[in-house]
Design goal:
The chain is an alpha/beta fold and 357 residues long. The protein is 25% helix and 25% strand. The protein binds adenosine-5'-diphosphate and magnesium ion.
Length: 357
């Protein structure tokens, strides 16, 4: 079968179809870079230079930041725009700027020679699945399949490396959720902006400078259960909250989502086991619970500038161990069926994916 969209040359270009987002005055000399079409990251770690990522690898730009002090002042200004403090007593910050941009900054001596600023643009409006198809991230044959997974309330783990597009794909999936449903999002930084009329967001709170007042993700997942969710979504699972997520997805709450950092679907079971260990869970318990909790793994990859939903896998127990089995995969040349295909069809209750046509 020919997959016309999979062979499209339009990779990651959807951003240029949209007007540039408004500039951020507090970003000083970085504001014009943040406003460039398609820019996802702006990074500074020495005077005079910024690196930008707009889908073709990092590009060096000259900026008016004459010395290390200017970089430090900018880092502090950005942090305060995000309502956070950044100084010698508190030299690391992770914050969200008023326009949604995510800021990380480290001051000397943690970043020894010069403050390090990392800015990640976050879309104020989610890309839809159709947008992702036009841009080449989700191939034509995958769109109907993914839509059906959402419609049938399958529970999914979105996996991939950092910056591969997990959050972007997840937001597009949530935008497909029926408007009569209530989505509970638990997040570290308030990144997910799905196009959906009924979203409740719980964002974790870090400890204050005295080390108290933290409200972490595990507690928020438990609280979310008392808020009558139809869909429970954990923006990023990277710590002991995996225990609560597995518990929620094992107790009748179908149709939820979480993202997990993993370089390939095959790595997912080990990654879940490692996270579970942080919560005192044994390997066996994590594997047993994860096998029930998640119907599918949606794995995204970035190679060169192109981000792609690269495969869908199912979790199965083989020889007492949990393994991810590829059901379908996509490359620039088209799609392929994997050994988990029948299991995926079973998950979909007999619905035949387009890709099988
Ligand atoms: N298909 C896409 N088209 C354009 N930009 C994208 C696409 N997917 C992701 N991005 C951008 O790439 C950056 C990283 O994506 P993100 O979804 O946050 O990755 P992850 O959650 O895997 O770290 C974001 O700025 C996002 O807006
Ligand atoms: Mg993310």
């Amino acid at each position: 079968m020919t997959d016309t969209l999979a062979t499209s040359s339009a990779r990651d270009t959807i951003a240029i179809l949209r007007p540039p987002q408004p500039s951020a005055p507090y970003a000083g000399p970085l504001a014009p870079l943040l406003a460039l079409p398609g820019v996802t990251d702006v990074l500074v770690n020495e005077p005079g230079t910024a690196w930008i990522d707009r889908g073709r690898g990092l590009e060096r730009q000259t900026v008016d930041l004459p010395d290390a002090e200017a970089v430090r002042v900018l880092a502090v200004t950005l942090a305060s725009a995000g309502g956070r403090r950044l100084d010698d007593a508190s030299p690391l910050v992770d914050a969200r700027l008023p326009d949604g941009t995510r800021l990380h900054a480290a001051l000397p001596p943690i970043a020894p020679e010069c403050a390090a600023i990392s800015l990640r643009r976050v879309r104020s409006q989610a890309l839809t699945l159709d947008d992702l198809a036009v841009g080449g991230m989700v191939s034509g044959s995958a769109v109907a399949l993914v839509r059906e997974l959402v419609r049938q309330r399958c529970s999914a783990l979105v996996t991939g490396a950092t910056g591969s597009g997990k959050t972007t794909l997840l937001a597009s999936l949530l935008s497909e959720v029926d408007p009569t449903e209530r989505i509970l999002i638990i997040e570290e930084a308030g990144e997910l902006q799905p196009d959906h009329p009924h979203v409740v967001r719980l964002v974790e709170r870090r400890a204050n400078i005295e080390g108290s007042g933290a409200i972490g993700l595990p507690l928020l997942v438990r609280e979310a259960m008392r808020m009558r969710p139809d869909r429970v979504v954990l923006g990023e699972c990277r710590g002991p909250e995996v225990r609560e997520v597995l518990s929620v997805f094992n107790t009748g709450h179908r149709g939820g989502f979480a993202t997990v950092h993993a370089n390939s679907p095959a790595d997912v079971p080990a990654r879940l086991v490692a996270l579970g260990a942080l919560a005192g869970m044994s390997q066996r318990t994590v594997e047993l619970q994860a096998g029930i909790a998640f119907d599918v793994i949606l794995h995204v990859e970035r190679s060169g500038g192109a981000r792609r939903l690269a495969s869908i896998a199912v979790l199965e127990h083989r020889d007492e161990a949990l393994v991810a089995i590829e059901a379908v995969g996509w490359t620039a040349k088209g799609w392929r069926q994997g050994p988990g295909w029948q299991a995926l069809c079973a998950v979909l209750g007999g619905w035949t994916p387009d890709a099988a046509a």
